[in-house]
Amino acid sequence: MAIDSLGVLPKPQTAVRRRGWLAGRRVGSVAWHGVRTSRLERAWHRASVDMAAVGASFDVRIDCGAESARYPQLDENESYRLVVADDGVEIDAPSERGVLHALVTLRQLVRSDRRGARLPLVTIDDAPRFPWRGLMLDPARRFISIGALERTIDGMALVKLDVLHLHLTDDQGFRFAGEAFPELATAAGGAYYTTDELRALVDYAADRGIRVVPEIDMPGHCTSWLAAHPEWTSDGERGPPSRGFGVHKACLDPSRDEVYGALERLLTDVAAVFPDAYLHIGGDEVHPVWWSENDEVRRYMTTIGANDVHALQAHFNARVAATLHRIGKRMIGWDEIVHPDLPTGTAVQSWRGAASRDRALGAGFDCVFSAGYYLDLFYPADLHYRFDPEATPTALADAEAALRNDPRLAHVQGGLGWATQFNAAAAGQGERSAVANERGRVLGGEACLWGELVAEHVLDVRLWDRLPAVAERFWSQASTIDADADAVRRRTASLQAVLTRCTAIDPSPAVPLSRCGLSTRDQRALRPLLAALESVKWYARLLGPGALKARIDGSAAPVTRPYDTTS
Ligand code: TNX
After folding, report:
1. Whose CA is nearest to atom 10 of ligand 1?
2. What is the pTM of this model?
3. Rounded to an integer, what distance in angstroms lies between the CA atom of residue 548 and that of residue 542?
4. Is the confidence at residue 423, as pLDDT, over 60?
């Protein structure tokens, strides 16, 4: 039997199917060999409750070689072997992480119908292709409750994703209420997380083998900070945090020691809550105007010998990296941070296509690839699935061309053309090179769901019809990836039943209607209309006519869009 038809997503490395099935028993047993930890006991409990719900119980033997670190780390051994034989199930893994994955695979293998509950006889040997398999959520734009984050973590574990990247701050919100500067969160307005809530969330994720990487976006995207601390900027756009979306001029003042001192206290606070080795400093979309027009900042540039604002941002980043180094963290940031002066050891999250990835790798920086996995663009799953984190520049250009030529995206073709040109221009031409020659390492990838138009009641719908396909891209070997676009869509669709059975996630499109408080009658009345509608792809809806036109004809985009945080 082909790997495909086992229904496990992401596809395992190898699966050898034997004829026959293991029938479920009324009462199953678990036998522990090797290491037995409370984390594994809880994972076993979840798996058995879930299987019991479909009337499945089996005799399972679990042999775990070693305890994993309390908080998951990059590059741990995550491999496992799962054997379903005539006389029961056997799980073998060198570490807890592997056992967690094996139990998830087991839950996906169960069949239950009129013939009863059963498992296919099979031997699965599995391990991930990439150690960094992430999802970025954006509670800064629209708050996401801890409950919704927890159920998302449950779903992530089911598709073997292992990094939840939380974009905690942006112009519209500052969701981290630490001890040094609690006023950053309260003055920014809206909800925020307490450190206790975040610590509990980190533990919840660690229990499922998932790391949580916090992002504090700086020095741009910071109007929310300035409500409490206007003195951290030099000029201009002070006032209440912005409700509008887009690139704002506000920037932290890179010329003042006081700002670096505050950042050190803030990041120390963040580090105390998030044990992960990496801390994300954002660094994206810094508006060039403010710094270049401010006299003090210009004087500072002369003092440090920075010829342009990119050099100045690199200087800012280097000072922040030194702070992170002192508090035992590694820095990661969006691909705008790549610069000859960026300290080695920094990791780069590439969002502007192959050229930005290769520029980072060529300069020796490890890379997390996100271009191609922007779930907020509403692309169908198979289009995201085409992008490979390690694809050659030519293959990635082909994937982008496929986007432009896809009839499902015909209505946004103008904008898409612009996006591709932007990718090439922004990342610096002439610096493309083949992946094989690079010095940095592709750690993996991250799907991103930017939150401008993602209120919590649509979160499940927006994530789960496409995220599983991306998760497979990050876990499965390139050689097992489906060539047929429909296959991955079918497999993603059939995973939905497992998701609803095993987690509190409900990805059905009707859910937002009930979650936003419509009566059952109104929901029923709206359904035929919804069935006939389709989401607008790309950023055509997010940008609105003004910004869309600006993007297409290359002029400066207005900050305001037809939606804001109150829409
Ligand atoms: C760019 S991608 C951003 C985000 C926005 C997104 C969509 C990146 C690093 N920055 O701040 O949410 O576009 O508008």
Report:
1. 284
2. 0.95
3. 9
4. no
